[in-house]
């Protein structure tokens, strides 16, 4: 059959935002991990959509590992940036990390699509995706296609919409 196009995607965001849980949900059920632990360094994962074969760099969001992210920017053809919508205290930290990413020379002048997941929408004190978008000033991103989806990675809600968008950007 036809070989799917290979795409490298970087999965970024603060620790505990739900990156690994999201990636795990996108894998075929027989490849899914049963319990998810905080990522050490990073982990390389794979999942497929109808037309694409994604290789994901699932980076640790812990402060001590965030300096690893930039070493993979060159290889990334798409970015998934995950936010814990209930973590209001660290929204400013998430914004700082996003701004650092967007200003990095390996990212700044590339028209690389960015998919945001406003994750943990199931939690009672979660902010809406519109509010998260405002706090991160996403409307200031003018030179890259971006999209934000509310998600509940534990139940797998909102993920397909996001991945469909990403696939459309790359095709
Ligand atoms: P690091 O690897 O440390 O950077 O964290 P991570 O972003 O990969 O987060 P991880 O996927 O390990 O999830 C952290 C915790 O949040 C786990 O206990 C998950 O079960 C939980 N979690 C992830 N997504 C959701 C969600 O949508 N809703 C709720 N309620 N919990 C979630
Ligand atoms: Mg992780």
What is the subunit arrangement here? single chain
* Count of helical regions: 5
The helix-and-strand class reads alpha/beta
What can be said about the biggest beta sheet? 6 strands, mixed
Distance between the termini: 18 Å
Bound molecules: guanosine-5'-triphosphate, magnesium ion
Radius of gyration of CA atoms, rounded to a whole number: 15 Å
What's the count of strands?
A: 6
Shape: globular
Strand composition percent: 15-25%
**What number is the mean pLDDT?**
97
Strands of the biggest beta sheet: in what spatial order? 2-3-1-4-5-6
Range of helix content = 25-40%
Please give a structural write-up.
The protein has a six-stranded mixed beta sheet with strand order 2-3-1-4-5-6, sandwiched between helices. It is built from five helices and six strands. The protein starts with a strand and ends with a helix. With 171 residues, it is of the alpha/beta class. The longest helix is centred in the middle third of the chain and has 12 residues. The chain is globular and about 50 Å long. The model has no long low-confidence stretch (mean pLDDT 97). The protein binds guanosine-5'-triphosphate and magnesium ion (MG). Magnesium ion binds next to helix 1.
């Amino acid at each position: 059959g036809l070989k799917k196009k290979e795409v490298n995607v970087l999965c970024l965001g603060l620790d505990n935002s739900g990156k690994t849980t999201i990636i795990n949900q996108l894998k075929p059920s027989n490849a899914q991990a049963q319990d998810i632990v905080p990522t050490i360094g990073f982990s390389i994962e794979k999942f497929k959509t109808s037309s694409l074969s994604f290789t994901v760099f699932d980076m640790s969001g812990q402060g001590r590992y965030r300096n690893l992210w930039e070493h993979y920017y060159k290889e990334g053809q798409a970015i998934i940036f995950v936010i814990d919508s209930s973590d209001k205290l660290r929204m400013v930290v998430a914004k700082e990390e996003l701004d650092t990413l967007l200003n990095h020379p390996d990212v700044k002048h590339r028209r690389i699509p960015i998919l945001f997941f406003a994750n943990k929408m199931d939690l009672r004190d979660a902010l809406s995706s519109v509010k998260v978008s405002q706090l991160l000033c996403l409307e200031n991103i003018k030179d890259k296609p971006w999209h934000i989806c509310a998600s509940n990675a534990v139940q797998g809600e909102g993920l397909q919409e996001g991945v469909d968008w990403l696939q459309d950007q790359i095709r």
